[in-house]
Write a structure and sequence with these properties.
The chain is mainly beta and about 325 residues long. The protein has strands at about 5, 20-30, 35-40, 45-55, 60-70, 75-80, 85-90, 95-100, 105-110, 115-120, 130-135, 140-145, 160-165, 170-175, 200-205, 210-215, 220-225, 230-235, 245-250, 255-260, 265-270, 275-280, 290-295, 300-305, 320-325. The chain has a 5-stranded antiparallel β-sheet, with no helix packed on it. Strands 1-25-24-23 form a 4-stranded antiparallel β-sheet, with no helix packed on it. A 4-stranded antiparallel β-sheet has the order 2-3-4-5, with no helix packed on it. A hairpin with a 5-residue loop joins strand 23 (about 290-295) and strand 24 (about 300-305). It is globular. The two termini are about 30 Å apart.
């Protein structure tokens, strides 16, 4: 256990770890160490995000906020340029771009839409951003930067689209004309879009996008080049429905997708490229909690995650863990 909600992670820290830790990621730091960033999924304006800073030898040397005063910061995602996109999970939710170092103030990114945000993943090759929506009739979105808006990776100005998937899995992207949801919720603006039952974690790498939907316990896989979407894992059709309560996810060094459970047996489960599943770890005694913020350190030798409400079942009972490898690399 590297951090507990309401307590300083290390003796010299004047700050305590936040309540209700949720989505997370890691970032390299210039001194050879790394930073683990984690959201705080609190209601009202008590949410935000915090960071744990690790020295090169793995010891914690600092704890500090990187975003404050926001609402229900659930998941999000790292960017290729080294920032954290923190997502608000409510009808008027938006995305905040945060500096893991905590030196620069977080920036609101309204071009990424106003909706029940869950998680984001950036296609480092094209600069496109994929976004999930945590609603029973939610959509799957893509943001495409506009030419002249600040570069191929700009979040300043772009086109928001929603996926329309046909019976063969081919994806067509339909334009969202009011990404600020001034008159209608974004998911109700465009007819013919495909509905997803509660979008959760998402990850992008090697011209592929993986994302999870909790309403039907599915893991989806999108081939960017072919523009094809399929179901990689479906608990209701699996011969071994080991994985349920699908939520946050990350890609392991060996190419497996690690999925954390919100419910189920409170496991982190590896989904192999062929769709088979393998349990990685389990947290007993945390029945009223969920596993969140699954992320590898930059070397791939340490795995971080949180139990959002720990053993108490309360937001103040959050616990953040580190699992040391080695982990498989092929």
């Amino acid at each position: 256990i590297v951090a507990r909600s309401g307590q300083p992670p290390e003796p010299r820290s004047k700050r305590v770890w936040h309540d209700a830790p949720d989505g997370g990621a890691t970032f390299r730091s210039a001194d050879g160490g790394w930073i683990y960033v984690s959201n705080s999924e609190l209601d009202g304006s008590r949410g935000g995000a915090g960071a744990l800073r690790f020295a090169a030898d793995g010891t914690i040397i600092d704890c500090y906020p990187i975003l404050q005063g926001t609402t229900r910061n659930c998941a999000g995602g790292p960017t290729p340029w080294g920032t954290w996109l923190s997502c608000e999970e409510h009808e008027h939710g938006q995305v905040w771009e945060c500096d893991p170092e905590g030196r620069r103030a977080a920036k609101l990114r309204p071009a990424l839409g106003t909706f029940v945000h869950e998680a984001v993943a950036v296609d480092a090759r094209r600069g496109h951003v994929y976004l999930t929506e945590d609603a029973t009739d939610g959509l799957w979105y893509r943001y495409v930067p506009l030419a002249g808006s600040g570069g191929p990776m700009s979040l300043e100005m772009g086109r928001l689209e929603a996926a329309q998937v046909d019976d063969t899995g081919r994806v067509r992207w339909l334009r969202i004309h009011d990404p600020f949801a001034r008159s209608r919720a974004m998911r109700h603006q465009v007819p013919g879009v495909t509905r997803f039952r509660g979008g959760e974690g998402i990850w992008c790498a090697n011209d592929r996008v993986w994302f999870t939907t909790k309403g039907d316990d599915r893991v989806w896989l999108y081939d960017i080049e072919r523009e094809r979407l399929g179901v990689l894992y479906d608990a209701r059709r699996a011969s071994n429905p080991l994985l349920t309560g699908v939520d946050n996810c990350t890609l392991a060094p060996n190419g497996d997708l690690l999925v954390a459970e919100d419910g189920g047996d409170l496991q982190i489960v590896a989904v192999r490229p062929d769709g088979s599943v393998l349990p990685v770890l389990q947290v007993p005694g945390h029945r009223a909690s969920e596993l969140t913020g699954v992320a590898f350190d930059p070397s791939g030798r340490r795995l971080y995650f949180s139990s959002q409400r720990g053993t108490t079942g309360r937001n103040s009972g959050g616990m953040t863990f580190e699992v040391s490898g080695p982990f498989a690399t092929a």
